[in-house]
Amino acid sequence: MQGVSRESFRAAADRLDSYATSAPAADIATTGDELLSVADVLRRQPRLRRALSDPGRDGQDRAELIRSLLAGKVGDETLELASTLAGGGWSAASELLDAAERLGVEALLASADRADDLSDVEDELFRFGQVVDGSPGLSGALSDVVAPPAQRAELVKALLDGKAKPVTVRLVEVALGGFGGRSFQSALSRMVEMSADRRDRQVAYVTVAAPLSDDEERRLGTKLSQLYGRDVSVKQTVDPQVLGGMSVLVGSDLYDGTVLRRLNDTRKALSQR
Question: Who's near 228: CB < 8 A, 6+ residues apart?
Fold first, then answer.
């Protein structure tokens, strides 16, 4: 998001955070679902999306427009959040859509946080991403944009029923729709990072040839926390092809100390002689 859009989203996100400090988890989750429904309406109706983000139109007028459309169809808090978004400034109509969808996801994460389930949701999203990544058939089925979204959502529910928190299942369904224009796997990763950020943590994606012990993972997390000045949530991926050592990705920082990387560097150096 550009500057003006970022400020408008922040205003709505601050309102959500204030609401989420005292509202019941179930109510916050309902607000999240309703905001995602608002995002779906904006996605299907480009003329409405443009009208609600038109810089030539007064912000109060835009806020009243969304109120008139949603009144009686969503809860009071959703109505206030949607009107806050519509009344803000937007660099492009697409950024209003992205903001509505992101705010819905943030509300779902806030509901998990309120229920003390956020750490579990973060881990479940990551582990499901690993399961999908390790199964080409499943990955293809869930990423198939030709297949009806409802059909893919039913597959997700069948796989996760009784094995994951309801918020996790709902977020995976949102990822199936291409959250923020991302691929399914990229959407899951972004949600993992948003979950960690809500817990004031950074995510470190660690790839190793064999699983780290609990003690090794704790020590690595402590070192990374000291390096970044923030608690770090370590997410392990086991890949025997790296042969040994580990690679660590934190944001855009990649530390690759794998045996495979060293072998590739050696081959490259020899080929240049």
Answer: 202, 250
